Write the structure tokens for this entry.
Amino acid sequence: MTTVEKISASEKLVSDFEAVKKTLPENSFVQNIRQKAIEAFAKLGIPARKNEEYKYSNVQKLFQEDFTQSAIYNPQFTIDKYLIPNLDAHIIVLVNDFYSEELSSLENLDKTVVVSSLKKAFEKYPELVEKHFSKHADISSDAFIALNTAYAADGIFIKVPDNTVVEKPIHIINVISAKENTLFSPRNLFVIGKNAQLQIVETFASIDLTVNVISNSVTEIVVGENARVQYYRVQNENENSQHINTVSASQEKNSHFDTNTVTLSGGWVRNNLNIALNGENCETHLNGLFLANATNYVDNHTLVDHRMPHCESNQTYKGILDGKATGVFNGKIFVQRDAQKTNAYQSSKNILLSDDATINAKPQLEIYADDVKCSHGSSTGKIDEDALFYLQARGLGIESAKKLLLHAFVNDVMQTIRIEALREHLENLIHKKLD
């Protein structure tokens, strides 16, 4: 009897690439990048806990089953239920990685602003795309960046020209549905020019999902000189969704970048947020909120790389965990030798509503300059018993008092959301979640 040796998940993804790449958009540039990416992935492999960046994440268990790669399946649905009430926005819809012009709505968008599928952008804007594609998300730094770069079939490309203000937010709706276990690899590239302004809201939805899916997404954002960008991500998916998400942003001098990551649901979520401050007088704000219960897993990894002087970064992440949920915050601040006069602040605060919930918080500073102001802090605990007693003494029931304190706990993160309709929508979702 012949014994067939079972290959590892990493080896299978590498071997599958030869067949899958025939279906992917190609030109000589992309083909070269994809080949380098799959070679980088083969070298790195799916991370084990021995990898310091994944020491709290049993990511290998996600790949114990076999997954097809981005199977084309178009569910029948309307986007009405995925719109944000009272949000006046341009709408972009991705269905299983692929840009849907039919479901998208870009009326009255400035004609100079380019919005297209990434697949089409390779054909129509090759010089611009090649200048930035895979230049900010480093395939050698993380296995899942490499895997996405190899397998990405489509995504969104946005180019805002210099001196252009996009008056209304752009709302990107990602819809996932599958009939078999599937690995999705959406890839986005946003290039915001000098003195330009843009607000992006990105949301995620699952339709009738009864199989396991992994969405391994990568977004590269280029923030030009003196540009201002607000980027909001809202994750509220099916329990069968596993989401590995990497955002790599690059800021030029005098630019301002705000990002909010709100995770309300999803079986297994990993958010990697990497920001490089490449010019003087950059300012960046990273805000995060996650609510997890049952056996949910939410992992937020941030890296802010201060490379030039007179820059400022602020990170505020808060988590509320119940049941047997697990949360992770691993935040890094690098201050390079030339980055004098840096101000950098980092805070992670968490509330555990159950004795079985777990949080792993690891704020980190790595400083090579001597004229800086940097601080970090982390706290984890239960609801303040004294505050709870105070509210009960004034007539509130214990459940009402708890909810009031939890809403107060998340309020400072909510107030950083500058789009009123989005903030109200999230407050309603959080209220239902806490109920």
In short: DSSP finds eight helices and 21 strands in the chain. The helical segments are 9-20, 28-44, 118-124, 126-132, 143-151, 385-393, 398-414, 420-434.
